[in-house]
Amino acid sequence: MKNNSKPANVGMYYPEFEHDACGVGFIANIKGIVSHEIVQNGIEILDNLKHRGAVGCDPKTGDGAGITVQIPDEFFQRVCADVELDLPEKGNYGAGLVFLPTIAEERHIVEHVIESIVNEEDQLFIGFRDLPTNPDDIGEVAKSLMPVFKQLFIERGEETPVEDFERKLLVIRKRIGLKIRSLDFGQKNYFYICSLSTKTIVYKGQLMAEQLRGFFPDLSQEDFKSSIALVHSRYSTNTFPTWALAHPFRMIAHNGEINTLKGNKNWFNTRESLFEGQKLGEDLKRIAPAIAPSKSDSAAFDNVLELLVHSGRSLPHALMMMIPEATSEDIEMSDEKRAFYKYHSCLMEPWDGPAAICFTDGRYIGSILDRNGLRPLRYFVTTDDRIVMASETGTLQIDEKLILKKGRIQPGKIFLVDTEQGRVIRDDEIKNEIIASKPYKKWLDENLIAIDSLKEEAESSITKVDVLTKQKVFGYSLEDIKFLIKPMAIEGHEATGSMGADTPLAILSKKPQLLFNYFKQLFAQVTNPPIDPIREIIVMSQEVMLGPELNLLDETPSHCKRIKIDVPVLTNKELNKLKALKKDYLKSEVVSLVYPIHKIGGLERALSEVFIKSDKLIESGVSLIILSDRGVDKNNLPIPSLLASAGLHHHLVKKGTRSKVSIIIETGEAREVHHFATLIGYGANAINPYLVFETIEDLNKKNELENVSYAEAEENFLYAISKGLFKVISKMGISTIHSYCGAQIFECVGLNDQVIQKYFTGTVSRIGGIGLDIIEKEAGIRHESAFSENFIHALDSGGFYSWREEGESHQWNPQTIALLQHAVRSNDYNIYKKYASIVNDPDKNYGLLRSYLKFRNKKSIPIEEVEPASEIVKRFATGAMSYGSISKEAHETLAVAMNRIGGFSNTGEGGEDPERFTVDKDGNLKRSRIKQVAQGRFGVNIEYLVNADQLQIKMAQGAKPGEGGQLPGHKS
Hints:
The protein is α+β, with helices and mostly antiparallel strands. Helices cover 32% and strands 16% of the residues. The protein contains 29 helices and 32 strands. It has a seven-stranded antiparallel β-sheet with strand order 8-3-9-2-15-14-16, with helices on one face. A five-stranded antiparallel β-sheet has the order 11-12-13-17-18. Strand 14 and strand 15 (386-390) form a beta hairpin. Helix 15 (478-491) crosses helix 20 (690-701).
């Protein structure tokens, strides 16, 4: 941490898994009247948000706090004159706070770069002011990482129009950052420009909320005046905060998390190759990449927002693009507003996740809430023209008699104060003006194509290979048919099953595995709430746009010359329509994913040829690439669809051409929700699971669909996958498939670094694993079983969902179950040891990573220095098993056992019988020390809560259909 940067990957730690939960707020004089009181009120709001900030082991080192105010011209004129810096009149100079290295030689390098670039941009370098700070009361950790603080002042050049000066300061700041990042010196990460503007200035740092005022004496000066004050107190869970990552950023302060960040950044970076704009012109190339590397989700959002604004869009317009309202289920939304959002979905995806964002550009100050409304923002307006907005009420003490109006921001809405016009502008007024600025509905009606309107073409070529053989090639089992495909085809939803899986991880399994199985979905946690995909369906959307994207910084009718599909899973007929597209701006081509078995270079060479062919197609104007594994036969092997899709996606991202083309997957592999989720998460825009449809047709011919026609079964399957995808993305707090595409919300378990870096770039794979050779070998095993001379006319039983002697290994199998039951019933420790030896033997029970963990050889310490077992067991806790998921007797026995040893048992959701709160006649206490609370669940009352030592709030998983842990309806 001595270089003042986020920590690097160490062992199994990855800093990208950090989470924020912050306090944010602002105060403004609606009429734009500047005063020192507004600044002081802003700091008071910040002080009262200190509980939303965090501290580490050093109780005086905070995660970050800061304030944005308008340029305090009167104050700057005075203090700069004191140090012989001659400032021009307000508006003709820019000011900014700069963090600099503490080593003098390195600091001088940075200062020289700053002055040089200012001069290169034909602006006048006025100089630096040493910013007064008082670090006496901050923590030692913060002090050890503290940079040198200086204020930078730049005068507008004679050739620069006043209206272009703010934009020029952006270019200067970006160029300085790019230059510093290209240099090599020890304290490079100390450098950071908090802001550089003619309108606003930021004071922030790795501070606690209550330390800001004392640390920056400027803030207490009577002539330090502003009509706005935007404040933020940062809570960064399990992270190592830095001075630079404190909020506010240049335009925003953010409470929440952007869950789709990887995808948003990848898509934005690849769009930069198309950027053109009259406002920034050739400067666009000189300041790319717009998103600074190794910064937080909030910093990335801020980078994109300011580029959109400086390229010509208004601040509210840019925010409506990045955080759109939910439109799919809102029947009250006007056609014009719906058209605005649909048009802009042709340009970019939402930055999705729970977000409450306060923003300012010096004139406007306001807030926007994401479509889910999971981060509250409350406000009140006073009779003396003040507006106060914050994460909660009570942040500023104001006489109730002065309060004119109270309220809270609604999901998807914007609250805006215009200090020049001196009024609060309503959400509908803001948006109606923006919506009416261009004929978005007309453009959509004339250019956007619904897939249903395309002509139906001939069926895809059918190979001579029968369905059963193809099923074997792609790893189908009887369980896939029975437990996955048939329930979805017949009933329109996934089959339900009990919680838990005791089969091996894919990397540890002795059975060939599909590549999908090496990826584990990530789920919302800590401060990041999931969405209920059943009750909150109104905020969710699976709509996808296909075809090329155009310049994000412009708006023309051609921007929406795209194809709209309602769901990302295509029927065979829909795919055939896309295959026939040969328009100038919508042209498709198929790229085969099959290759000869004995091909020189094997899988890696085949993938390279897919990428090369795709590059040539894009150069020729193709805008829809269909990756197809049709055509497998005795001599040709399929490339795993996930490997091809993710590999091509990242290949095109790196080349900057990804936004010119949509990737559509025609595959025999995908059949369950996780398969579709991984394909979409790694960049597939749409998927056609042709072998599923062939399988359903085969089942229909065999009369195995319970009088459901093929057409109904196909529709049911699509509906089931749609519901399943909603369930998956909702667990990460994501609302739209558009945002989920390319967001790669996964962790890999079992692929090596070479495969990850080239084909799944940016994915975490903590333990390493197999390479392309094993992936190809496992595909070859499936292929060989399909075309073997000893062909068996039946699918493998599977044994994944149910134990089979020749199937997949299970930790709970007849041997382990019998031994455990025998040991418990007979109270025979020797039998238990036999059971334990099997469970702990990695040769017999090889499904878990922990089976392979071993202690390093180290010198023993005296047993007297070891905490006794009687104390260690007091930290033991049982799992949160609900009453009903196990029997009354089992549930109470666990509670008694934990109470006897001083540990913790858990009620699970659903309450607890009050009789268990007191000791029974046998002297046993059946009370669970951990009480669980689930939203809207039964059994939670005051008596239940006060009889808890710990409370757990349960999110997003429960024993109900559509949720993480599913119980069959008949199970009581």
